[in-house]
Amino acid sequence: MSKTIKIINITVFCIWIALLALLLHRQYAGSPMEKQQALKGPVNKAAYWYDIYSGTKKVGYASYMFEWVGDEIIIRYEQKTKIKQEDGEKILIDSYRCLSNSSYAIKSFEYSSHYEDEKGIKVTGEVDSDAVVFYLETSEKRKTYRTSTKGKDIYLPTTFIPAIIQKSPPPDSVFTISMLDFI
After folding, report:
1. What's the average model confidence in pLDDT over 82-111?
2. Please, what is the average pLDDT of the chain?
3. CA 38, CA 141: separation in Å to the nearest integer?
4. DSSP 3-state assignment of 80?
């Protein structure tokens, strides 16, 4: 190989290494993106994954994701489970999204349950100061329900323990927490 080609190859290799180092530095030690600075408060995320078993056989999984954005919490849940039926196995998909305040009380939510590649049910709702308004949808019907909360906050099963910890009731006292359970 001629000396000129060796020098060109070494130069290209050195430039490639320098660009790769610059890219890695920018990715892991660079400045934060400008869009994140435009948000009102800090953004934190936490995700939890679970396997679902029937005996020793894995039949599905579930995941929870919590995102704290300013003084609100976005909660996402998804579950996929294999269900045995007479005509074989189907996959049941349950999911919900919920917007709550910093004390984990629900502001609004969306729930859906259906078999893979089929239509199912969808429920959306909003919590007012004195009631929860539900919008229920199936492939055939749509209905609206209003349920009184009597001014109490409503919690999800996944958030009532943090709510109890925040309220820190005195030992041996009686108290109630209203929950919304989709099951």
Report:
1. 87
2. 80
3. 42
4. strand
Place of tokens 């984990």: 104
> Locate tokens 């936490």: which residue?
46
The pLDDT of residue 123 is above 80: yes
Instruction: Give the CA distances from residue 136 to residues 20, 98, 155, 157, 173, in Å, rounded to whole numbers and listed in that order.
Output: 53, 16, 19, 20, 37
Closest to 111 (Cα-Cα) out of 140, 84, 136: 136
Type of residue found at 125: G
Answer whether 179's CB lies under 8 Å from 127's CB.
Answer: no
DSSP 4: H
Per-residue pLDDT tens digits for 10-51: 998 989 888 888 777 776 665 544 443 344 455 678 888 888
